[in-house]
Specification:
Blueprint lengths: L1 E5 L8 E5 L9 E11 L1 H8 L15 E9 L1 H7 L6 E5 L8 E5 L3 E3 L6 H4 L3 H14 L7 E5 L4 H12 L3 E6 L2 H9 L4 E4 L5 H8 L5 E6 L5 H7 L1 E9 L12 H6 L3 E4 L7 H21 L6 E6 L3 H10 L5 E5 L1
Parallel strand pairs: 8-9, 8-11, 9-10, 11-12, 12-13, 14-15
Antiparallel strand pairs: 1-2, 3-4, 3-6, 3-15, 4-5, 5-7
Helix pairs in contact: 4-5, 4-10
Length: 328
């Protein structure tokens, strides 16, 4: 099979199309003929040598795919209601940038009605991440306010839409006026240009001094102190990436007085059983929102798989709004 390989750690140009033995599924798994692969920030980090592959996962990058089931564990497929020929999208721990990809049956979801494989490939990584962190870890409830750092990212556009559809007020940060406008068009109640405004002061102003209930943070570093400052009582901060660095100094007194929760997670190394629980919740609670049109895939650009280096260069430029997808 053809696959995009990381020939050495470095710039996007280290990504090259190569040939690998065809992937083979094992117990509890299916083999998917891939039509489209989502591109995500962890792929960039892996290419740069900053994100080690979990034990047992493929060294081929790529965490989400969409395509057709070509073979699999018959009993696991039957238990999940899957059959050969079904169109699915799947979250994987690696191997997504390839013509064939193995995925646990429990991490496969049907392609939502009306969506192309290209659109479906943009869903798993961000939807699993947002659901796990915003709704299961931070317990965002209807009527609460969510602040999303990086509203125009793939994670951001997903979080905006799901949170709004489920009854939250949504604030976002973005780096320019066009990105802010795009976030508002997707349903955000307010978008804060973090380059021209102090997001913490704006968040307090927009909530009449109450502060925000939940923050989804992909920056960390120096942001944490300002986030603690602008959170409401009993607020929850969830850190899912470290683009601003691993070190943070903040007012611990505010954490005590406001009874704040600061937490975080990574999804890739979690067990199949854990991810299966997320998949089940998504199918029940979010897939109907996609079918109804209340939540839509947001794709900025597509590239042929052979041009994966160009896709990574675009992601690193931070010029995109929404997802970047490779086609096979």
């Amino acid at each position: 099979m053809n696959a995009v390989e990381i020939t050495s750690y470095g710039a996007p140009e280290v990504l090259r199309m190569g040939t690998r033995p065809a992937a083979v599924e094992g117990a509890g798994e299916v083999l998917i003929r891939v039509n489209a692969s989502g591109v995500n920030r962890p792929d960039v980090l892996q290419r740069m040598g900053h994100y080690p592959v979990p034990p047992g996962a493929s060294d081929i990058p790529g965490l989400e795919v969409a395509g057709v089931v070509v073979s699999g564990d018959a009993q696991a497929m039957a238990d999940a209601g899957l059959k050969i020929g079904d169109r699915v999208c799947a979250l994987v721990a690696g191997g997504g940038y390839a013509e064939l990809c193995v995925a646990p049956v429990a991490q496969c979801l049907p392609v939502p009605a009306g969506l192309s494989d290209l659109e479906a490939a943009s869903l798993p990584e961000t939807f699993f991440t947002v659901w796990s962190n915003v709704f299961e870890r931070a317990h965002l409830r209807p009527g609460e306010t969510l602040l999303i750092q990086g509203g125009s990212s793939g994670i951001g556009v997903t979080a905006i839409q799901i949170a709004k559809a489920l009854g939250a007020t949504v604030l976002v940060t973005a780096g320019n006026a066009d990105k802010c406008a795009a976030c508002v068009a997707l349903g955000a109640d307010h978008a804060i240009n973090y380059k021209t405004n102090d997001f913490a002061e704006e968040a307090k102003r927009l909530t009449n001094g109450k502060g925000v209930d939940v923050i989804l943070d992909m920056v960390a570093g120096g942001y944490v102190a300002r986030e603690v400052d602008c959170m409401a009582e009993d607020g929850r901060l969830v850190i899912i990436a470290l683009q601003g660095g691993t070190k943070a100094e903040f007012n611990a007194g505010l954490v005590l007085r406001k009874r704040l929760t600061i937490t975080g997670s990574t999804l890739r190394p979690r067990s199949v059983e854990f991810k299966a629980g997320i998949a089940k919740a998504l199918k029940e609670k979010v897939w109907p929102l996609i079918a109804s049109g209340a939540v839509k895939p947001v794709i900025h650009s597509t590239f042929a798989a052979a041009d994966a280096a160009k896709a990574h260069a675009l992601m690193e430029s931070n010029q995109h709004v929404g997802k970047i997808v490779l086609t096979w």
